[in-house]
Amino acid sequence: MKEEKKKKENKENNLKLIKIENKEKKRKSKITQNIGKEKIKEEKNSFKKKINSESNIEKKKKLKNEFKRKFKGIESNSKGNIVDIKGLNKYFCNGSNCEHILHNIDLKIPRGKVVVILGASGSGKSTLLNIISGLTPPSSGDVIVNNNNLFYMNDSSRTKFRKLNISFVFQSYNLIPSLTVIENIKVGENLRSKNVEEIKMVDILKTLDLTVQSKKYPFQLSGGQNQRVSIGRALAKNPNILFADEPTGALDEKKGKEALQMLLDINKKFNTTLIMVTHNPNFQKVSDIVLHIKDGTISNIINNKTKKTAKDIEWS
Predict the structure, then answer these.
(1) pLDDT score recorded for residue 15
(2) pTM (predicted TM-score)
(3) Which residues contact 259 (CB under 8 A, 6 or more apart)?
(4) Main-chain phi, psi angles of 63, to 5 degrees
(5) What is the rounded radius of gyration, in angstroms, for the C-alpha atoms of the chain?
(6) pLDDT in tens, 278-313
(7) Which of 71, 95, 114 finishes a domain?
């Protein structure tokens, strides 16, 4: 009887310990999940105290304007850069479990460059792309992209940022089957800001070698041609940055090289910053900057002095 009672007590004690541990995990997870919000809250309170303590009317007015700009995410990039990242961390939390995906990343990308991000699956390369493009918020750190600090922007502000600055090319084409080539491309053109210079449709079709196919439908095209249409749709918006996530993953070598060269031609002709994520290490030979991502950190940065064309690189 005593042994059974002791076993029961031990079981109850163990359950209590597990509950305490789980409660502590959830508490820490909540703190980690809200680390960015808490930092912004602290900075706002500190800034407000600074404003309230200022007696000079002109200086107070200046501080108020700085406050509005900072917490709307308006912040200039350093000279010549389109991306400036300092101390970037990203956590993904699910219940009581938090995973630290990106670790204290610093990065600068000059405007108009071709950047290739390489890394194994799970290294954090797609997360980095998603944060720079405004799809995913950073947990902490400054992420300044085309004079917007994404750390201080809420969901609606980041949506507006993407609309004004970003275009995407994915492995899947995501074309509208009932629209022709030119109509699919015009979908991207309709998203272009009025303040952004228009790229003429005739130039897009010519650059992507789609003039003859302009009135055809997606089902009438090859995989390579459909990928070119998706590139054209992204280009029609005339974005500051064009993001490509495994853009040739669904294509064979011949069509893949053609699509890659189209992206490189766009960079050269329109000075569009191009950032690509890929598993193919040969892509680094066509880029200006190569970022190697490993275990959530940038393990190596290579600046290429000479670049190859897509047709001159090995494919596998």
Answers:
(1) 66
(2) 0.83
(3) 224, 227, 228, 231, 247, 248, 251
(4) -65, -40
(5) 24
(6) 888 889 999 999 999 999 999 999 999 999 999 999
(7) 71
